[in-house]
Every structure is written in structure tokens, then in C-alpha cells.
Amino acid sequence: MKRSLPLLFILMQVLFLGSCTPINIFSPFVDPSRMGNEAKMEAGYNAIESGNYDSALQYFSDVIAGSSGGLQADAYIGRGSTHLNIASPEIGSVVGSLISGSLSVDNPSAIIQQVVQDGDFTGFFDEARLAADDFNAAVGIIGAGADPGILLETYQVNMMAATGVGALRIATGYNVPPWDTAPLDDEYNAILDELGAYPYNISTWDNAVGNGLAAYVDGAPEETEMLSYLSAAFGALELLRPAPPAGMSEADVLDMENNIIEWVQSGLGVLTPWPWP
């Protein structure tokens, strides 16, 4: 089944599931080994709705292993969506804020803080990185024909993954009291708080001096991983720019691209060449 609706709506799930024939994945008469790929896709989304994420991951992984082209890309998107649901049960609550404009689409720290309401930033970032890998694989298959919503979500999840990589390196490197004994999740929260007193928070990452990326990530092994996610985010925007989704202009996309460039150049000190997609 080709799924081309924006992923912001995929996260709400109901718009997808309403058009699909339900499959009782808990039935003893359903043998996954005998299910076709289309049936596994349906079962995967039903499993997400039921909160049975382990089964959803298995269904989508089976389709990825046993298909190619558009169906494989759809399965990567399904598995990435599963990782986002595992990352936070609040993932759907942010959708309305993004659509209404009350939450800026180019502010990853604010999005992450709204989504992670249980304080488990460590778990969230782990799953965000897995989700980013899946969305990147999907876009790599689809290319320029990817739905604008998919491209926008690919940008978002890569920015979240990059934020997690950078924040972890800063949190483990900055050991001044009280942060030398603070739980890692508390330090994550402080780094994401743009109005807080933490000396290295995400709002300073585009400054040429005094930011945590320059102090701790630039030159560290984590820099390469962070750059890979930022590169993928930039690549998604490049594909998105000719035809941005409703409510977004080309100028908006360029602003988001410039934000990435500031992180890379001012934060990580990478001027040229940089691996633009």
C-alpha cells in the first residue's frame, strides 16, 4: 500500500488506519510467516495503534527485508514512525501545535521538550536516531518524489538526532557543579532550555564563540555523527524547497537551511567543504 500522506499525520495514525482493513494480529490463526508484505504493512500499523511496538518493528522489518522500491520505503517510514512512538507517548500531541503554528517547526529544542514530558530524554534520543536512520533510508529510495510531509518529518527527526548527539557530548564533557553530579536527563533538559541558566544550551549553538558545540563537539568523534544527521536534514530541505507544504514558503525552508549552516560553521567550525548532499 502506497502511503503518501505527510508524516505529521502518520504520527496521528488514525488517518491511515481509517482507510485500512483491520487485521487481528493477536489471532492464533494469523501466521506472520505466511502473510504477504501488504498484510504485514497493515498489521504493522495496527500494532502501532495497539501499542504493540515490538510486533510493529518486526512486521516492518520483515517487509524491508523482503521488498524493494516504494513498498520498502513505506516500510522504512512505518518502522521510523514506530521508533518515534516508542520514543514518546506524547509524539502525537505536538502535531496540532506544529500545524497551528504555535510551535515553530524549526525549533528542535522546543519540540523535544514538549514531546518528552516524562523526562526520559536518553531514551528519546536513542529512538530518534533509529527513526532518523529509517527516514533517511526511505528518502534515499524515493528521492525527489518524496511527499513534502515526509521530507519535513525527515528534517525534523534528523535535527532531533543531531541535537541528541551534541547534547550528550556536552553533558558528559561539562562537569562543573551542580552538573557534575546531576542525572544525565536533567542535564539534557537544561541544555534544551533556551531560557535557562545552563552555559551551553541549544540557543547558543549558532554563536561563533562560547557555545557547547565549539567547546566539546568540534573535533570529537561525535562531530562526524552529528554532521551526518545535519547533512541528511539539509538534504531533505533541499528536496522540499521547490515545493514546500501548505503554510510554508521557500523562504521558510531557506531559513531552516541557514540555521543548519550556522550550527555547522559557527558551532562545529566546518566552513568548506562540508558534505552537502
What does this structure look like?
With 277 residues, the chain is an all-alpha fold. It folds into two domains: 1-87, no CATH class; 108-277, no CATH class. Helices cover 62% and strands 0% of the residues. It is built from 13 helices and no strands. The protein has helices at residues 7-10, 14-17, 37-50, 53-65, 69-87, 93-100, 108-115, 121-142, 148-173, 184-192, 212-217, 221-240, 250-267. The protein is globular and about 55 Å long. It starts with 6 loop residues before the first helix and ends in a 10-residue tail after the last helix. 43% of the residues are buried. The model is unreliable at 1-29 (pLDDT under 50).
As a percent range, the share of helical residues equals 55-70%
What is the number of helices? 13
Distance between the termini: 29 Å
Mean pLDDT: 84
Keywords, separated by commas or semicolons:
277 residues; mainly alpha; 13 helices; disordered N terminus
In short:
With 277 residues, the protein is an all-alpha fold. The chain has helices at residues 7-10, 14-17, 37-50, 53-65, 69-87, 93-100, 108-115, 121-142, 148-173, 184-192, 212-217, 221-240, 250-267.
